[in-house]
Specification:
This protein has two helices and six strands; from the N terminus they run H-E-E-E-H-E-E-E. It is an alpha+beta fold.
Length: 130
């Protein structure tokens, strides 16, 4: 399994994220005409690092909660924070998941297709072993 698949497994493990169906958790981007709310995620960087005696990898991952209203995006983001934790996902061991930042982009109201949903981004550093 790939690291990206393991991140998806972490997000869908258990029922931590109840506001977004599993099918709306996607890698990279969300189709503009797909239903909301949704979650997207991407891996910015991956590099080899050494922590103690075990060589691990480190990745920076951004997870975005997308919803029509800003308060809904924030509520989903809180569920994402609960889901992002150490564990074994798709046979990849996440030894630590550290939140490094959050950002809210408010919904932009416009006419027709000019409207833009709210987006709340959580950024994490994930230390993992393949």
């Amino acid at each position: 399994m790939s690291f990206e698949s393991a991140v998806r497994s972490m997000l869908t493990a258990g029922s931590t994220i109840s506001l977004v169906p599993d099918a709306r958790i996607t890698l990279g981007y969300r189709l503009q005409d797909s239903a909301l709310p949704a979650i997207t995620y991407d891996c910015e960087t991956t590099e080899l690092t050494t922590i103690g005696a075990t060589p691990d990898r480190r990745a920076v991952v951004n997870v975005r909660a997308i919803a029509v209203q800003s308060l809904d995006a924030i509520a989903i983001s809180e569920q994402i924070r609960s889901a992002c934790k150490a564990g074994t996902y798709s046979s990849i061991v996440f030894s630590a998941v550290v939140e490094i930042g959050r950002q809210l982009d408010d919904a932009v109201v416009g006419d027709g297709d000019e409207a833009q949903p709210a987006e709340h981004t959580n950024s994490y550093t994930i230390f993992y072993t393949e």
